[in-house]
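Problem 3 from the worked examples.
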Amino acid sequence: MSCTDDMSEQNKPAKGHQVTVGAEETGTDQLKLAFLRNIFHEIRTPLNAIIGFSTLLGEHYKDDETAKEYIGMLIGSSERLLDTMDKIVEASLLQSGRVTVKKERVNINELTRDIYSKLFQQAVQKGLKLTLRPPFTNEDTYIITDRYKVSQVLQNLVENAIKFTSAGEVEFGFTVSGTLLNFFVHDTGIGIPVDLKEKVFDVFFQADSGPSRLYGGTGLGLSISKAYVEMLGGKIWFTSENGHGTTFWFTVPADR
C-alpha cells in the first residue's frame, strides 16, 4: 500500500464522523424545536384563557374607564407575549430550513384592510394617525403568493412603525408596477442612526439598543421579514433619517 492510499484510509473515518456530527446537529435542532413548541403550547393555553376572560371583563366593565384601561393593558401584554413566542418559533424554523412557501390567490386590498383594522386601535392608543393608501384603482388587486408571509411582513413593518413613533402618522399601502407589487410603510418616528443601518436586518437588532431602551421587542421581526421577502423572490430596503422617520419598502412578484 502506498503512502497516498494509507492517508486515504485514514481520512475515511473522519468523513464518517462528519456525517455523524451532521446527523447529530439535525437531531439536536429537531429536539430544540420540539421543546420550544411544547413549552410555548403550555404557555399559550393559559394566555388565551386570560385574553378571553379579560375580553369578557372588558364588556362587563365597559362604562368604567379605569377598569377598561387596566383590562386593555392586560390583554395587550398577553398578546405581545404570544407574538414574541410566535417570532421565536418562526426564527427557529427559518434557521433550520423548515419554512416552505405555500402560494394561493390573494386579494391584496383585503389583506391590507385586515392589517389596518387589526392595528388601528394600537395606533389610536398612542395618539397616532394610521393611514392606509390604496392604489389609484377601483378594482381589487389579486396575485398568486403566500398570503401568510406577505401579511406577516407588512404587519411586522407597520407594528414597528407604530412602536417607534411617538407623534404624527404611520402610513402604509402598495402600488402595482409591471410584474411587481411594491409595498411601503412610512412613519414620523425616531428614525435609524447611520451607524446602525447595516445591522437593521440582523437577528435581535434594536434601533434603541442600549441600557436605556425605551421600546420592547425581540428584534426578530425585521430579520424574519427579510427572510420571507427573499423566499417570495422579492427585495426589502429602507430609507431613514435619525429623528425624522423611516420608510420601508418591499416587493413581491405580481404573479397572476
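Problem 4, a separate protein:
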Amino acid sequence: GGKDSGVLLNLCIDYIRRNNLKRKLCVFHMDYEIQYTVTIDYVDRILEANKDILEVYRVCVPFKVTTCTSMYQSYWRPW
C-alpha cells in the first residue's frame, strides 16, 4: 500500500498485460490493521481490479515495526 510498492505493483501489472503473459503475479500484503482508510481502499481497489492476474496473500501476524512517533520507544507492535 506504500508509494514504492504501489508503483512497483502497477509496473508489473502493466508489463504482464502489455505482453499478454499467461501467468499470475504473487502479491504479499502485510496488513497492519491500522493503516489509513484511503490506503486500505487503494490496496483493495488495485487487487480487485487485477484479480485475474494476481495471486494475493494477505498476512496479519504479530510483528515488530520501527517507529519515529515516540521519544521513548523505537518499536511498536501493530497487532
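Solution to problem 4. The two ends are 17 Å apart (CA to CA). The chain has two helices and four strands.
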